[in-house]
Amino acid sequence: MAKPDLLQVCPYAEPVTAALEKEFTLHRYFEAKDKPALLESLAPTTRFVATGGHHGASREMIAALPKLELIASFGVGYDAVDVEAAKEHGVAVTNTPDVLNDCVAEVTLGLMLALAHRLPQADRYVRQGRWEAEGPFALTDELTGSRVGILGLGRIGKAIARLAQAFHMEVVYHGRTRQEHVPFPHYPDLAEMAAAVDWLVVIAPGSAETKGLVDRAVLTALGPKGKLVNVARGSLVDEPAMIELLETGGLGGAALDVFAEEPKVPERLRALENVVLLPHQGSATHKTRAAMGRLVVRNLVAHLRGEPLISRVV
Ligand code: A2R
């Protein structure tokens, strides 16, 4: 029997593609020169789309595939998938939660350590021969004993909280709802939390509701000694306000894995000394990316076999 058609929106690592090819006939959207023609040719048969956090699936794509049943997205954030359009067309959406919690939490603490101890600068100091020429590197800050406020104490936020506790940090959090059975104080007001902490870690989903949540008022409340960490989505932070406050000393520092217009990072941000910048590395390890890929495949195959989806969001 012919394998069912699957529209592959973005490239995957070889093991993921190989696993998909066992079950599906892959049609590579990202390689197609005439994308509308590819969609038109797939419209009569295609029940499956496999995509990624950045590429998502647009309303136009969903509408162009009337037989579509499932969009399987690689990554926990699925803000690039038009979920309203998916709901309207009765299309299910899956993501890849949980398997990346520890990895993203590790990268978060790595960013915080790098910013507090100025690890990138200290490394450069040694490489440039300045230790020998100029003597010891200037003293730095540390995490121990400081207070961290987590915006979004979900699956990843809780993993970050556990690591922060291992560094003897005090943990508080902000979310729309106070969580029972969570041992950390809840702040219903984000700006109030920002004023009360040394670190603000952003790890809530990107959505219309969270866009610009970390605005000028929140950043100002975090203040000249405060440090912002964003490992969620660039859209949650008012990036121009953040840059201006970092430049003028209104905000102490920032450790960022995500940006408003990736992979573009503003030149003014790149010029600052009080920031650590990563190219969206939160889940980018061999082990975690492989686990995320397996979950994409498991969702698609489950649906193909008429079994329940493993990680359905819509
Ligand atoms: O608001 P709550 O109590 O439902 O808490 C959720 C919080 N959250 C928000 N907090 C404040 N204002 C909002 N408008 C808002 N919307 C959601 O974010 C919850 O504690 C947390 C999300 O947790 P999970 O759904 O378990 O997500 P997970 O797996 O931790 O990933 C978070 C995000 C992804 O969506 C990617 O964009 C990023 O991490 O890599």
TrEMBL record:
Record domain D-isomer specific 2-hydroxyacid dehydrogenase NAD-binding: where: 109-282
Domain D-isomer specific 2-hydroxyacid dehydrogenase catalytic: 19-313
CDD domains referenced in this protein's UniProt entry, alphabetically: HPPR
Transmembrane stretches, start-end: none
Keywords, in A-Z order: NAD, Oxidoreductase
Family statement drawn from the similarity comment of this UniProt entry: Belongs to the D-isomer specific 2-hydroxyacid dehydrogenase family.
Designated name of the protein: 2-hydroxyacid dehydrogenase
